[in-house]
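Review box. Two proteins, two foldings.
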Amino acid sequence: MTNAIEAEGLRRSYSGDFEAVRGISFTVPRGEIFALLGTNGAGKTSTVELLEGLAAPSAGIARVLGHDPYRERAAVRPRIGVMLQEGGFPSDLTVAETVRMWAGCTTHARPTAEALGATGLAGREKVRVKQLSGGERRRLDLALALLGRPEVLFLDEPTTGLDAEGRRDTWELVRALRDGGTTVLLTTHYLEEAETLADRLAIMHRGRIVLSGTPAEVTAARPARIRFTLPEGVPAARLPLHLRAAEDDGRVEIRTESLQDDLSAVLRWAGENDVRLDALDARSASLEEAFLDIAAGKAGDPRPLAPDTSLAPAGSDSAAAPASSRSAAASDTSLASEAVR
């Protein structure tokens, strides 16, 4: 079995005939970090809940480690870890008591000290959950998701509330888990996080996947840009015509498919004409630009970029999906009880 996660024609409908997930297909090979991104209401949380086995799909097939995660939960649940958007743990328990409580519902759980040390909570064992900062609570959520040494790890917004140092520590931990063979499916609103961590990613919009591939493939599908400010009295019309420059109050932007060649042309023109280019900035397209284009309905042809990924065609006729609740207050009891084996 080469794929840890498989989705084929996956759909999820809610009451009122609202379809939040509209026939998506993708695979995640073992030992890969896969980021599922999307605008608010795009359907990514609804998709992840299907893969976690928290709900049955309205149509299509979901497989995790070769099993249906909803109908074969007994085979899947012991082998996965789930980090929800919000933990919802008893606030009066200490950190150590919370971990021990969860470990009691988990087969072959890591030692408490190991789980807390891996997530930067060593030394906070005796602190009550209600006294933790938002970032520390996210660390605790991650520690509990890792207790059972999962083969597949679902991370829903794992670094929300963390400072820059904590975020990068979490990235290093996720990379180490991947290098050790754990498959990670990640959702995040931090596009830098997806660009830094993900081996591959998919961007959802209105219930469908509209773009997928490696971060490099996704950004390569967008033009690079060159920006600078011209001196007063020097119009952008004097630039070489092939550069297709746009000017706004002296600030010039050039979109290009050939960054090196066009940047050389700009610098050569400036040198030959004794023109100083202030605030010069040249860079390849970013994941953020691709994401914002999709959010604004400028995604263009939504063909997949990854050759091993089969995706349904994208559409734009559906309203945005309602956000699905990810509070563990509604689901962590179910997860805990089904972890008892």
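Next protein.
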Amino acid sequence: MRIGRILSLSVLLVATVAAPVVRAGADQPLPATAPLPADPAPLAAAPDAVTPPSAGGSNYDFYYLNGCYREPYNVISGFSRAPDMIRLQLGQMRKAGQDRLTIGVFHHHGPGGGAVMDSTGGTLSPADLKNFTDLLATVKTAGFAEVTVAFNSQYPSNPSDWGSWRQDLYDENWQLIQKVHDLVTAARLPYRIDLGNELTPSTGQSIVVRYDQQLWRDYTARYGTADTVGFSVNSNDPGQIPNVAKVYGSTPPPVFDLHIYGDEYNQFVGDDRQLRRQGYATQPVIVGESFYNDPVAADGFAKGSKDSGRRILYLTQWPKTRENTPQCDQVDVAPPLDFAAYRAAGF
């Protein structure tokens, strides 16, 4: 889910000024610890699913919510304000059976604010780079098997917002990817790179097609394909999955990253059919986003994998419940500790 759908840039910039640094609010102090969920169900290989060698986990972008307000509590830009809390939460997530994380790099050309970091010049600020380095070290110490780093460009850096081609912003985004790639590899932690969160082109997005094709050529020429999922797919946008081949042609990533919310069985089987029509019959998938700790989703994905024959390597849940309120329509759980429903289904 794009953070751009959460708050407008103007709100983010206001939040930068108003955001609390140490506490959540005058009437709602930041807790010293996060509650630990009930012991998860034992990991059992569902007969209808392929059990990965280690489990999935969560998109971990926010360590706290003040009501629905989350922007100051981003795990990268806010790491230096709450290192002990983040360390504790990561330990709790591991104890709850989570082995993998997805961490979003929310960025744009312009002043940073809330979760969105300034990527002007193709890099992050020294403070954000240090925070990111320290976060990855903490993830490694906690014992996670793997992390996916997902680039999530915001206006004006997101090509979906360009009225015409912006070579300057393309170059800046590509330089940022290289900078962060070096930082991630230096962490010596198994990783994958999502070059653009839900940035597979949709219907009529010719500029996004050009952006994705050029970035895929540049990235694979420098790094190859082994460490990337390419561009994750928003399966709830029916225009994205049919356009996958426009990006990769005969050189796809080794695994596709699908984001699926609602009607999980039919969405998954439908995505598999679309991929097969485009010549991609053998690649496994990661379910990179789905409803938080949701048994209905878990069942749908397990059955969809069996019926389609498409292997799911693992799943990383998004911190949004199926029953969430409109006031918190994008994120209503922080931190995402419980993974029991997906563990029970073999994910």
